Amino acid sequence: MLTVTNLNDIATQARRDIIRMVSIAGSGHPGGSLGCTDLLTVLFNKEMIHDPKKWRRDGIGFDMFFLSAGHLAPALYSQLARTGYFPLNELYELRKIGSRLQGHPSVERGLPGIHIASGSLGQGLSVAIGAALAKKLRNEENFVYVLTGDGECEEGQIWEAALFGAHHRVDRLIAMTDWNGQQIDGPVDKILNLGNLQKKWEEFGWDTLIVDGNNIEEVIRAFSEIKSLVGNGKPKMLLCKTVMGKGVDFMEGTHKWHGKAPNSEQTEKALNQLKETLGDF
What we know:
Blueprint (H helix, E strand, L loop, with lengths): L3 H22 L4 H6 L1 H11 L16 E4 L5 H10 L41 H14 L6 E6 L6 H12 L5 E7 L2 E2 L2 E2 H4 L5 H7 L3 E6 L3 H12 L8 E6 L22 H9 L9
Parallel strand pairs: 1-2, 2-3, 3-7, 6-7
Antiparallel strand pairs: 4-5
Helix pairs in contact: 1-3, 1-4, 1-10, 3-4, 3-9, 5-6
């Protein structure tokens, strides 16, 4: 069983992957990807019941993950590659023409681990609720996970989905909000203030926890706590406080690295702050 130290090492290496992928591609979204890395590390290496060798797009018999905030694809691709869904060296192909690793997840070329094309913000939660409802109708006990962004919660479809999920009592759905306070044009509270997110989700009928999304031990505890509530008929939301650009000091806490690739000097500086723990691709 992986220890917290092991998971932290995986997260650090994944951050190196993200920096190198985006730098090689010359475009992409490093800030949010770095921020959500700890969440995805715990999810893919500890929480989810999944088997890359038996993966199927319909997800029957296994847990499923949907990346609603599709621009965070580099963080997802690193986890998929390092848990065996496709060869590690394919990470070189991020954003190349004809690649399976597009800038937002795509199903056109059948990349294992990707259930839906995503990136049109607001839609992934609806799809995840549909998948969870299908599992409920099949009497499956697997979980469905979905990651949204806090800026994404400005989309009306998020709240339509929230109503639907509560109404249909899909309590094996675990949604996560990457709550970093930043979006493409600036701080979320300056662009369109979301108010009290915890109260909003609770009023919509969801079990809701706030967690430090960059603390692996806390993330593990939060998953355990939220799963203990299964059976009460409420869908679940983890509001994960994260830092955009986490792990690279000049990227942390600013929207300026939402969708900007580092140059060679910045890449070197970033990698010097992130210890190579598992070997680069």
